[in-house]
Amino acid sequence: MVVEAATSEADAPGPRKDKDARETRLHNNGAGSPKPTWRAVTLSFIMGTKVHGLKFVFSPDKSKLRRAIWIVAFCLCVSLLCTWSWNRISYLMSYPAVSKIYMVWAPNMSFPAVTFCNQNVFRVSSLTKEDLYHSGYWMDLTYPNRTVMERSKSILRDQHKQELLSLLDFDGYAPPPDRAANTTEMMGRLGHQLEEMLLECRFRGESCTHRNFSTIYTRYGKCYTFNSGLDGNPLLTTLKGGTGNGLEIMLDIQQDEYLPVWGETDETSYEAGIKVQIHSQDEPPFIDQLGFGVAPGFQTFVSCQQQLLQYLPPPWGDCKSTPIDSEYFSTYSITACRIDCETRYLLENCNCRMVHMPGTSTVCTPEQYKDCADPALDFLVEKDNDYCVCQTPCNMTRYGKELSMVKIPSKASAKYLAKKFNKTEQYIGENILVMDIFFEALNYEKIEQKKAYEIAGLLGDIGGQMGLFIGASVLTILEIFDYLYEVFKDKVLGYFIRKKRPQRCQSDNLEFPENQTSPGVTPNHAPRAPVTPSGVTRTVSDSRRTCYLVTRL
Prior knowledge:
- The structure is a single chain.
- The protein is α+β, with helices and mostly antiparallel strands.
- 35% of the residues lie in helices and 20% in strands.
- Strands 1, 4, 5, 9, 12, 13 and 14 form a seven-stranded mixed sheet that branches. A five-stranded antiparallel sheet has the order 6-7-3-10-11. The chain has a two-stranded antiparallel ribbon with strand order 2-8.
- Strand 6 and strand 7 form a beta hairpin.
- Helix 2 (38-48) packs antiparallel against helix 16 (474-500) and helix 13 packs across helix 14.
- It is elongated and about 120 Å long.
- The chain starts with 13 loop residues before the first helix and ends with a strand.
């Protein structure tokens, strides 16, 4: 193997120098033209970018004062742009929301469910000795050992309730051994019956009966729901607004059947009349807390307006968008959540449930009602605010109400009504009420919560500020990314490419062989070896020095 080295191109003869230069250019063209450095890329970017002011900052033609002014102006605009962009980003991350209200007209509307309960739970005339034996303690008539309270006896004597006094005499009485206290059966039997309470019923001018109502139990005992959609009754609709186009009922509240008030307790009720709740069919009634009262001796007009509410889930709002986790209800609502929570609370604390609560667990006995269920539920409703936390559903239907009343009966109609229902005029004035429920107009109100600021608004705001302060756009950002890519490619990728490239031979490190190729020929003027396919490697170290490695086989 022989290694021959050529000295500087400046020392070579003229023809040899020209030939080497041509070979060097051919080699460079074969390997690719030299790539621009990152400084050249940066200069090209600055002079050609659309960002306003940047080329004046680095322009060599400008004086130092003008360049300083441009630097201050450019930095100020960039600072304002960053400040405003951060303000918009912070506003977006605060998840703002706005509420919009629409009024929607409809050709027809579904009539809501109407639930009502008598304020009295048990009818006095229906009580039996067995009922009082099992539930006298619950009704505050007796002590736990079934001894009648003296206070109750004196009140019954004053009110001439001799029959009830005789029923409270338990001397020598023992209930049938095969009949235990059944709270559900007792409430259904002793509650006010709709067949006796309902005197007249009309819906959209057509007659209706007690068969158009469904029985449901609440904390008021036995209650009734019109247009519940249960028991095979289809949902009713209305085609017009105003009185006469909804539900109109006349009820007898039967005050003579009310239990006497023995004293002041949490369950004592001083009212006479009915409790009413207007709700959607998907929502169970929660009448003891959400109902409104209707008094006897008045005709009450209830003007309704349907409201559809749509809320946003977190983080924009706080509504519940996930399905309800309950074994009793399939559709989430606040009342369903509360009833489900109250049921679980009583099962944990009393090992029983109330009659109105869903499920198949054991129903509380009258003694459990008195000692555990009623106090525990009152404590949960009034004081324990952490156990039952029910979020607002993202979609719900609500009915706004406006109530107005007129006195009934009038002097002109008192005798007629007394004769019609075979009652006295005093009884009519104390027990009869009329309730008229209708839509104010055939429209509904849609209240919708929407996002106040989204990504599109953010991009629009930032883009507008970029154009205002520095004259940039989305394509300008692409230019910046393209420039950064070129710099990255030159500084990082170029480093690894140069590191992996084979080390080039330098002429200063070459050693000439002891044996010359031919006598009388110096290394600087040695004849050029012919290029053969068997192995020629040529490396150009720089523009002035060339190294030839010749391998001979």
